[in-house]
């Protein structure tokens, strides 16, 4: 039986959050925040099956680099109470293969976000099944609050 989960929040500086740290966690990478002057290292985090950045045609190609993208967002949003990014947590289906789930997630993001001018940073997670728990395939999406316009 298919389960549905779609949760949306914002990454906000006023809550003490860093979008660079959030991206590092979701992707399982080590990223440096120029704004905070610190590294966030999640390279030992397990369960990250895939992570990608999807760009609309008008986006600078250097934004395909996660650290460059999110540091540019941190720099552009100057306020102490800045809203930096939307964060989505979306369930995938156990009935599909991981390859089918990734393709489905990518198609959804290209149609609903990138097609509307948004940059998308997404990561697919498949946490280990521990102590008889249920499988929980899902994907995380980060996109800047503001779309990238052609000008």
Overall description:
The protein has 151 residues and is an alpha+beta fold. The longest helix has 15 residues, at 98-112. The protein is globular. Strand 2 and strand 3 (38-41) form a beta hairpin. It has helices spanning 19-27, 66-76, 98-112, and strands at residues 6-12, 30-33, 38-41, 48-54, 83-91, 120-125, 138-144. It contains three helices and seven strands. The strands form two sheets. It has a five-stranded antiparallel beta sheet with strand order 1-5-7-6-4, with helices on both faces. Strands 2-3 form a two-stranded antiparallel sheet. It starts with 5 loop residues before the first strand and ends in a 7-residue tail after the last strand.
Task: Summarize the SSE layout with pairings.
Blueprint: E1 6-12, H1 19-27, E2 30-33, E3 38-41, E4 48-54, H2 66-76, E5 83-91, H3 98-112, E6 120-125, E7 138-144
Antiparallel strand pairs: 1-5, 2-3, 4-6, 5-7, 6-7
Helix pairs in contact: 1-2
């Amino acid at each position: 039986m298919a389960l549905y989960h779609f949760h949306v929040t914002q990454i906000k500086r006023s809550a003490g959050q860093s979008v660079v740290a959030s991206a590092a966690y979701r992707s399982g990478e080590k990223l440096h925040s120029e704004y905070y002057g610190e590294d966030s290292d999640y390279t030992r985090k397990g369960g990250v099956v895939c992570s990608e950045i999807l760009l609309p045609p008008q986006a600078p190609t250097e934004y395909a680099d996660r650290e460059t993208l999110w540091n540019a967002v941190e720099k552009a949003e100057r306020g102490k109470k800045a809203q930096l990014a939307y964060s989505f947590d979306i369930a995938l289906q156990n009935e599909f293969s991981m390859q089918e789930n990734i393709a489905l997630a990518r198609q959804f993001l290209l149609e609903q976000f990138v097609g509307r001018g948004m940059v998308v940073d997404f990561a697919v997670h498949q946490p280990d099944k521990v102590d008889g728990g249920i499988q929980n395939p899902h994907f995380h999406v980060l996109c800047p609050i503001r779309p990238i316009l052609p000008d």
